[in-house]
Amino acid sequence: MTYGENMAKTEAVECFSLYDISAIVYTKSTHRIILPMIAELYNLIIAIEQREITHEAFANLETTAEELAKATEEFSCIARRLAEESGDEVLEKEMVPATQTLLVSGKNILLAVQKLLIQPDACNSVEELAVSAKRILVGTIKVFWAQEDSTIRQIIQAARWLFGCLLMLDSAEDVSAMLSAFRPFSEALLLLTNLTERLLWDLKESLQRKHLAENLQILKNSIPMLFTAKVSHLQHPHEQQMNLSKNYIFDLVKSSIKKLISLLRSNIGRTKQLHERYGLFPQYLHQFLGLMFSPQPIHLHEDKLNLPVEVLIFYCMLFADSSRATLKQKLIQLCHHLLKFRKVIVMDVSTFNGFPKENIKDECLAMKTELEHLNQVIRSAVIYHVLDNLVDIKGPMRRLIEAATEPCSHVGKEGLLRKLKPLVTTFFSHSTQMLKAANLILVTCTERETAEDIEQCIEQFHRLLATVPGLLSELSLFPGNDDVSKKLNFLSQIWSSTTESLMMCLDKILDLHEFLDASVQEMMRHKEASEKALDMQHFEHFGGHTSRLCRQATQIVEFVNRFVAKARDPIFRNGLLVLIKQLKNAITQTEISINWCTARMTSLQAKEEYSKRTKELIEFACNVRKGLDECNQPDILSPLRDGVHDFNIPMDFLDALASQDPMEFSTQSFIKENSSNNAELLVESLDKFKPAYCPSPEFPRINIIYQKDAVRRANLHPLISELTTATRIHDAIHLNSICADLLELANCCIDAAKEALRIVESPMSDKLLHYKEIVVLIPHFIGLAGEVEANPVLNSEQLLQTAMLLSKKIDETKHSLTFVVSFWYRLAKQLVGFMPPCSSHDEIQSLDEIMKILETLVQLISKVVHSDERKLLPECSSLQEIFLRVQIQFTCVQTRTKYLLEKAQDISKPHPDFAKQDSFDASCILWSVTIQALLNIVDQFIGRDVLALKELQTKMKHRLCLQSTLTTVSENSVRIQEAAKLSILLCTRQGIENEIPSQTEQIKILTESLLQVANALAVSPIAAPSLLVQFEVLQRKLAITVKAVLLQLNGLNGEYLSSIQSVVKLSQFISHGTGSDSDLIQKETFGRKAAFLKANIQTVDKVIRDALEEPSKFLKPKENVLTTTGNLLLLTDEIMGLAGQFQLDQHHHLVDSLLYEWSAKAGYLVRQLQSMKGMSETVLQVVRRCLQNDEEHIYSIQPSSLKKEDCTQHQNTPSQGHKAIKAGEGFFPACNKITMVILTSF
After folding, report:
1. Is 802 among the domain residues?
2. Do 50 and 32 share a structural domain?
3. What terms describe the molecular function in GO for this protein (predicted)?
């Protein structure tokens, strides 16, 4: 074990109070001992906090402390002796410090008790007692960890021995050598099985445990197959199929051993699964409330109450450890009450021998009241964790990145790091608190989907935090490196989006009313504290409290804005928006008064202004809170409602647009000779789509005076700003030129949005529908511009409003589009020199090369569609239709590539104007969306994902761990290749015997290339666009080639493929079962069909064995055929086992590749039988019908029970592993003594 792993383990143990015990203890035996120790430790801490340890109790503790010290000494000696006897040097080395810590802690707790006897009032001694008790717990966990790691090392050692024996068995050149190699192989497998089964028995339920058991089962099931395949190969060494079958079985066993070792090395069981984390507190709370609501004596015994009480106390103490002092005291007091009520209830139940009494019911009712109170306090704790740790969560990262990337001269490496040190410290400290709060909130979350989202956010934060130090170090080495600065800015953007995702999750967990109540109370507290600091001239305290005050108000705005976005009632929504806007204005005014006070703290006028503004701020916050209950909102006819949207078209107007057929305007005909025609067009469109509550088609008006600096103050798009300027100065020629440029820009945005709507889903599709607003606004805006140019007084205010609205919609649409095709867009701009390359090894140098790469994709699809052998397949017609769409889209890509190159030439000239740059940027977006649409159609052609490429793409997109998915892709590819090789014999009749081998080799090459690119992307913090392009194209090349091969296999082995597919598909109908009768029926049907298929394959094996028992003329091909039937049996069991897990995993690609391999082996088996001279036609018909799973023609002979070879032989001499197992017999009883002493102590 590495130093880093040891440090991580030690850190996890030392701060165990922050995490669930299941995160650090993964075996049932250890959990059974450690959990009571933790419970009693918390009992001791609660008793100390409540000052309930009396002087008399201290006197009784000395004897117990002596027993505990003696027990820890005995346990340490036993643990060290067992480590020495095991022969494991690593265990001996790890056990020495672990037992030493435990031994010292036992003596320290005795010393602490003796100090208390001398000085009963000494608080330090009481705390030392609790610390010593905790160290005993930590030492015990370390000892268990050392022993468990030793067990895992023994299993890995046994697996390596088995792997070596397997290699010797594979290399045996005759039967004698094979038999000699088979004996140590059997011994190694027996040892591995014994050790692994002991571990499996002790492991808690987890995904790793399941995979470990599956791999062990494969190893045990493969013994007869290994023996048969090796004997057959030795007897017929020149038979190709014998060699293929032997290689397949040996490769399967090798991969299973490697997977088993990999699982053991990955800290098996110590990775806490999501289903073990989320909602644990409410789950146990509701369970306990159920017991108290209708108390039954049988459920109130100590063994029934201990677990829920201990779990609730555990999580309450977790919250108490990191909560405010007042909440901490409440939680500890409630835990104390729970322990008292549990003790009383248990005593009463045992006293009355199980007969219900009134006082027991009263005690249960009191306990129920305490539990409800506890639930409310935990809810408050969650809210205050958000208020304390999740305010301004973007700020520390933003300030750090801004300071790191700002230009600075005469600052070297040490100077930059010294400058950033306070910001780095603040950032990581804030991030630690934020992640701690998120983990605690996860415990209270009851919705799995929300919990998964929070879990993903936490994982993303961890990945981003790991990236920051490296980038800052790189920046300190190369201060002027723009590439590192861009990576940091990109990192900041990801951090910001992740924080937004986390806050959206909190919206689903928190009660907004309770949250706002707590927020207002916090604001009042900070107001009072800041005014006190102001009076006492404490600058730092004043700055801290005012900062928290403003951030708290901003957080209210953010939470309520997200709530408003989901509100459906427009009147309620608009009224709440008015209150939010008032609060935002109050925040601005408060910040101004804070700055004034900071500059003039002795000024009485500044103090009065600050007090006035903060009072208004809190009043506006209270108004927002009341507005949630539809109180205190402005009147429906109030003019305040008119300007609340900041020029947004009402949501109902957008809904009306979306519900109607899209309006198709020709942007080329927008410029009219008569500007009034455009205004009429706008009015007509607004009349057509006007919502029921909208009184007129006019845009919302606000009081803005159209003056010279109005455009400058407004955030307008440059083209629109230039157009408004041209109207103001009455430049008709320039106005026409700008209108043409604006129409070209709008045309690109509209075309790109329409294209993108075919490839995106909600909610992104909802944002892209804003292009319809651009369609409506463009003619109206140009018409207004013409009118204002002729008469400046007329409609000048409305022109500015429309300009601002149109600017916003164009920017929103462009932003959404760049998000959809981010890396294609970055690549387009990189190729013309606007963005420096992210990678110096850029293999894609120009747009022409990209077009050639895409053209190869189209040619590859064409080759698949127009192959003569596939024209008769039923799928061919639908594939040809998709191919036509591919051709049309590729032609569109070519046209828009030419257009992009023209725009690139325009901006390559010296000093291009902003209109040309905007046009080029829009053409980049349009080109990127067109290419993405082409790839989307290609994906439709590919159809079902057999190789798990979509899962790989998703994990790559979200920067998740790729190793397991890469392994799945590789394994699925190998299975398809194997199926293709088996089907070559059937190709001679159809003239494609040369095509399949070449395609199979191409699959192998493409798979290796894809894995290399994926690994390169995985280790790159910010992926280069060129690598992403290769990744996108290689995926599809591989998938299309696999598609071509699978189409051929469908034609060759279709009858057998459909037979097993019909069984597997039955499992999909129960994938989302809820336990209803229909689900049970479907499950029963699948089980019956699966059993029937297995019986048919066993029948095939029996029939073939019976047929081959005849003369010696079948001797040569006999073993070959039997090997194939054995493979079929093994594959059938594996497929049916995976299919039964569809309702859990839903990863169809795990089964798809196996189905094609199974059908290929079935076809190959029939071909083998057909090639054998003298083989009965009746046998062939029976085999075919059984492989087709035909229920109407069941062969009458049922296979007899197969003889099972006893391949487990006991060793004559015990190995080290057996010695270690025997040595561990007395390990847990020794530790039980410590636990019993602790239980009786506190």
Report:
1. yes
2. yes
3. actin filament binding; beta-catenin binding
pTM above 0.85, yes or no: no
The rounded distance, in Å, linking the Cα atoms of 686 and 775 is: 12
**For residue 412, what pLDDT is reported?**
56
On whether both 993 and 1104 belong to a single domain, the answer is: no
Rg (CA), the chain: 37
The pLDDT of residue 709 is above 70: no
Of 943, 828, 952, 974, nearest to 875 by C-alpha is 943
Q: Residue 27 pairs with which residues in a beta bridge?
A: 203
Same domain, 1019 and 1099: no
More confident residue, 46 or 440: 440
Cβ 94 vs Cβ 129: under 8 Å: no
pLDDT of residue 342: 76
Using the predicted structure, report yes or no on whether residue 756 has a pLDDT greater than 80: yes
Give the DSSP per-residue string, 676-729. HHHHHHHHHHHHHH--TT---SSPP-------TTHHHHS---HHHHHHHHHHHT
Chosen domain end from 588, 616, 647 = 647
Q: Which residue in the block uniquely carries the two structure tokens 């070959």?
A: 1120
pLDDT at residue 1219 above 90? Answer: no
Tell me if 216 sits within 8 A of 260, measured CB to CB. yes
**Residue 318 corresponds to which tokens in the numbers above?**
């977790």
| Alpha carbon separation from 807 to 402, 717, 724, 763 (Å, rounded) | 27, 5, 12, 22
Say if residue 399 is in the same domain as residue 419.
yes
Instruction: Evaluate whether 901 touches 847 at the Cβ level (below 8 Å).
Output: yes
Residue 1153 in contact with residue 975, Cβ under 8 Å?
A: yes
| d(C-alpha 1107, C-alpha 876), whole Å | 40
Domain boundary among 613, 631, 647: 647
33 alpha carbon, distance to own chain's centre: 33
Q: For residues 162, 167, 168 and 171, what is the CA-based torsion angle, rounded to 10 degrees?
A: 160
Question: In the Cβ-directed half-sphere of 453, how many Cα atoms lie within 13 Å?
Answer: 19
CA 124, 125, 130: angle at the middle one, nearest 5? Answer: 95
3-state secondary structure of 27: strand
- Structure tokens belonging to residue 946: 């057999």
pLDDT of res. 492: 86
pLDDT of 835 > 50? The answer is no
Please tell me what DSSP assigns to residue 641.
G
Written as one string, the DSSP assignment of 185-231 is HHHHHHHHHHHHHHHHHHBPS-HHHHHHHHHHHHHHHTHHHHHHHHH
With cut-offs at 50, 70 and 90, classify the pLDDT of residue 301. Answer: low
| Most confident option among 13-17, 224-228, 852-856 | 852-856
Residue 187 predicted with pLDDT over 50: yes
For 1076-1127, the pLDDT digits (tens) are 556 667 777 888 888 888 888 888 888 888 887 765 455 456 667 887 888 8
